[in-house]
């Protein structure tokens, strides 16, 4: 018996040691790859120097490298616990109306599949049909990573349900979860790149090309673009020259909420954002052939939050901590007006960058979508806030919210600039569905 016990003790120790070595090895490989990609865009770890800090532009330090792993492990543990209770989270979401109502199998999607995929891949982006998209990707912040889509409380916002996100989620089908990938799968069942499960971005077998990360800001776009290029080149399922690719970019919420007030000058803040967009888009334009980019224009956050009624305490706290640059009782009228003007300027930058001639070539285009730019908080017929659109922090979107945004984005992709949806009030899911027509079977990709 003693020999048997010793054997299992030694065996368990060896297995544990092997797993630890694997984890450490994986961590080192990930860190080396991340450092290499950061180095490619001129970012290298350094010792912190308080004398060079200005305008909210942070340094990347050696401490950040270690903190990243701690934060990553925490997120993985929290997500694991959430997935173990995912049925409970779904039931909670259903009971509160935060999940879309499943569409019966007898009901078809409103758009016909006829004439929606070319017989051979088109050479011009202006001839791109919905079924021609072979690869789909998403970059951005927590709203694209799926934070809090399923939740019990505000603490659950740390959990990423990227398989359900409007721009890069592909779990199940549109009947259960409306997302842009799930809509496009109707026209091309072989679509690739969407997240297939709810996971962190480091689990590339699951997250695939949805590489959105919580807390991402405009200045991180260049790195995300570099990572996406690397993933596309290394993925054997991606044919860089032949496949048409669709990328949805959504950033700005973190910049506006928690970075704006740490800049000395609002115009410098906007100029930096414009520079970030140009550099990231030039990188993608020059290294990713056959690419269409959706740029989601940032929402007017104060307009959304200020129209909310009977705000729960946890949301009141989250809004003032997470969006302290705009939701702050100590701001005077002049300060609030200046920051609102900067927010409107941010939206204008998004629209102007997307229209630049340098970003419109035969196989490349950027389209800005202002569907959230003027939206107020969703309301019920009695005038009270409709919380079904939001998760439990009253900021991130619920699954129902992601479904509605997917519907709006799909419509926007098929309409010229002057007809793109810019609703004041949150519409119902499938309130309007725009379809490719015999006269206009292509995505609208040029400014009008």
Structure description:
- By secondary structure, the chain is of the alpha/beta class.
- Helix content is 41%, strand content 6%.
- The chain has helices spanning 2-40, 62-84, 86-95, 142-145, 180-187, 204-207, 221-234, 253-258, 266-287, 301-306, 313-322, 333-355, 399-413, and strands at 133-140, 244-250, 291-296, 364-369.
- Strands 1-2-3-4 form a four-stranded parallel β-sheet, with helices on both faces.
- The longest helix has 39 residues, at 2-40.
Q: What does the main sheet amount to?
A: 4 strands, parallel
Q: Ranges with pLDDT <50 over ≥5 residues?
A: 1-24
| Beta strand % | 5-15%
Cα-to-Cα separation, first versus last residue: 82 Å
Q: Which strands sit side by side, in order, in the main sheet?
A: 1-2-3-4
> How many extended strands?
4
The mean pLDDT is: 90
The ordered string of helix (H) and strand (E) elements is: HHHEHHHHEHHEHHHEH
**Rg on CA atoms, Å:** 23 Å
Structure, briefly:
By secondary structure, this protein is an alpha/beta fold. It is built from 13 helices and 4 strands.
Describe the secondary structure blueprint for this structure.
Layout: H1 2-40, H2 62-84, H3 86-95, E1 133-140, H4 142-145, H5 180-187, H6 204-207, H7 221-234, E2 244-250, H8 253-258, H9 266-287, E3 291-296, H10 301-306, H11 313-322, H12 333-355, E4 364-369, H13 399-413
Parallel strand pairs: 1-2, 2-3, 3-4
Helix pairs in contact: 1-7, 7-9, 9-12
């Amino acid at each position: 018996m003693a020999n048997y016990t010793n054997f299992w003790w030694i065996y368990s120790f060896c297995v544990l040691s092997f797993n630890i070595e694997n984890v450490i090895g994986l961590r080192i490989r990930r860190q080396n790859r991340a450092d290499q990609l950061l180095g490619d865009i001129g970012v290298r770890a350094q010792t912190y120097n308080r004398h060079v800090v200005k305008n909210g532009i942070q340094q990347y330090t050696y401490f950040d490298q270690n903190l990243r792993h701690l934060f990553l492990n925490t997120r993985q543990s929290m997500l694991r616990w959430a997935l173990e209770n995912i049925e409970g989270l779904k039931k909670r979401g259903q009971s509160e109306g935060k999940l879309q109502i499943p569409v019966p199998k007898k009901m078809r999607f409103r758009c016909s599949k006829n004439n929606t995929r070319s017989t051979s891949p088109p050479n011009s982006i202006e001839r791109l049909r919905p079924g021609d998209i072979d690869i789909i990707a998403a970059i951005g912040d927590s709203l694209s990573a799926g934070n809090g889509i399923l939740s019990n409380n505000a603490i659950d916002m740390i959990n990423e349900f990227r398989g359900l996100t409007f721009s890069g989620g592909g779990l199940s089908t549109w009947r259960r979860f409306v997302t842009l990938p799930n809509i496009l799968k109707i026209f091309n069942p072989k679509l690739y790149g969407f997240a297939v499960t709810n996971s962190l971005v480091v689990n590339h077998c699951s997250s695939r090309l949805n590489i959105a990360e919580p807390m991402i800001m405009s200045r991180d776009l260049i790195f995300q673009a570099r990572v996406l290029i690397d993933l596309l080149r290394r993925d054997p399922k991606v044919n860089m020259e032949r496949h048409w690719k669709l990328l949805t970019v959504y950033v700005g919420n973190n910049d506006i909420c928690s970075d704006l007030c740490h800049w000395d000058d609002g115009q410098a803040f906007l100029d930096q954002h414009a520079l970030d967009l140009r550099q990231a888009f030039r990188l993608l334009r020059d290294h990713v052939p056959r690419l269409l980019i959706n740029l989601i224009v940032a929402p007017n956050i104060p307009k959304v939050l200020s129209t909310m009624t009977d705000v729960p305490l946890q949301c009141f706290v989250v809004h003032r901590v997470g969006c302290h640059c705009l939701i702050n009782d100590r701001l005077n009228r002049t300060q609030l007006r200046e920051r609102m003007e900067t927010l409107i300027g941010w939206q204008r930058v998004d629209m102007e960058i997307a229209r630049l001639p340098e970003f419109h070539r035969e196989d490349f285009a950027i389209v800005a979508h202002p569907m959230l730019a003027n939206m107020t908080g969703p309301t019920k017929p009695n005038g009270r806030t409709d919380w079904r659109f939001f998760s439990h922090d009253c900021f991130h979107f619920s699954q129902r919210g992601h479904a509605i945004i997917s519907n709006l984005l799909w419509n926007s992709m098929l309409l010229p600039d002057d007809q793109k949806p810019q609703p004041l009030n949150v519409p119902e899911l499938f309130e309007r569905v725009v379809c490719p027509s015999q006269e206009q079977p292509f995505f609208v990709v040029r400014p009008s």
